[in-house]
Structures are given as structure tokens and as C-alpha cells.
Amino acid sequence: MELLDAIRKRRSIRAFRPDPVSEDTLARLLECADLAPSAGNLQGYEIVVVKDPKKKRELARASFDQGFISEAPVVLVFTANLKRSASRYGRRGQTLYAIQDATIATAYVHLACVEFGLGSCWVGAFDDKEVARIIGAGEEHLPVSILPIGYPAEDPSPRPRRGIKNITHLESLKG
Predict the structure, then answer these.
(1) What is the pLDDT of residues 3-35, one digit of tens each?
(2) Residue 20 belongs to what domain range?
(3) Between 128-135 and 53-62, two packed helices, what is the crossing angle to 10 degrees?
């Protein structure tokens, strides 16, 4: 599949079939995350793979009761490795670069799901501390995104976009 086709075809999927995601497919998705660019090539992120039904239910509750998270066969939790990025970039690495690294890795997997016929939904609304507790993350790992993954049980229509003319600005945001 061409990248632009995957970008155009991607939808936020919130209903999943119970079919499992194969270990081979999961490994290929995680390889995409590993190939994502990162600040100083530090890869200032970690990914927790969650398959346990109880933990998926806990993640759904910690995500303000977004129940579809628990329905996905596999859930990836991307965390910013604050200490890793700070080791080279100090405060900016800790407060920005590690978070950017985790989000880029999430985006790569999110798009790669389309290639494998999978659906996913980027979840950013959750209780950081509760998610950290569920996945056993210490203070140096900030949960950034949750990505439930599975075979879609829905086919949502494209959502309206702001359009290129409304999101781009020549030289400045002023004027």
C-alpha cells in the first residue's frame, strides 16, 4: 500500500472483532515503531504490549471509561522515557523530545495498522498516574498514548477536515 493511501484510508476504529492479532503482525507493527525518527536517535520511548483482559479493562476505566479499549485484542501503551531524553537534552529532552518521540512512534504504528487490515484508535484522554500504575511505569516513564489494535468491526466514514488553506500560513501566523 502506498503511504498516501494509508493516510487517506486511516480511521479511528472503536469497535473490534474478537480475532487475535498474530504475533508476526504484532512484531511487524512494533518494527515500524522502532524505525520511527527520534531526537538524537535516542528513541526516548517505551511500548508496553497489553493482552491481558483484566489489564485492558483497567486501561479502559483509566481512560475515562472508553470501553472499546478493552475490546481490542491487543493494546499498546506508549510512554515517554523522560530520563533517556534528558540524558542528552536536559529539560527540553524531558519535557518535549521524549513526548515527541513517543507520539511519532505511535503515529507510525497507527498508520501501519492500515497496511495490515487492522484498525486502531489513538487514545490520549486518560489518567496518567493510573495508566502508569497499571503498566508498572515509574516516574521516568510518562504515558503518552494508548493504541488499541484489532480487526475493525466498523467502517466509519471520513470525518470533515479543516482543509489546507485553513491550516497553513505563509511566513507567519499573523496577518
Answers:
(1) 999 999 999 999 999 999 999 999 999 999 999
(2) 3-150
(3) 170
- Angle at CA of residue 137, ends 88 and 22, nearest 5°: 100
Give the bridge partners for 123, in sequence order: 146
Nearest CA to 42 out of 113, 110, 94 is that of 94
Does a structural domain hold residue 157? no
Q: What pLDDT score was predicted for residue 174?
A: 81
Q: At 89, which CATH number?
A: 3.40.109.10
Residue 32 lies in a domain: yes
Calculate the alpha carbon distances from 170 to 135, 152, 163, 175 in Å.
43, 39, 15, 9
Q: Which residues pair with 148 in a beta bridge?
A: 75
The answer to the question of residue 155 being in a domain is: no
Number of compact structural domains in the chain: 1
Q: Looking at the predicted structure, is the pLDDT value of residue 1 above 80?
A: no
* pTM reported for the whole predicted model: 0.95
Is residue 89, in this structure, part of any structural domain at all? Answer: yes
Give tens-digit pLDDT for 82-138: 999 999 999 999 999 999 999 999 999 999 999 999 999 999 999 999 999 999 999
Cell numbers for 163: 482543509
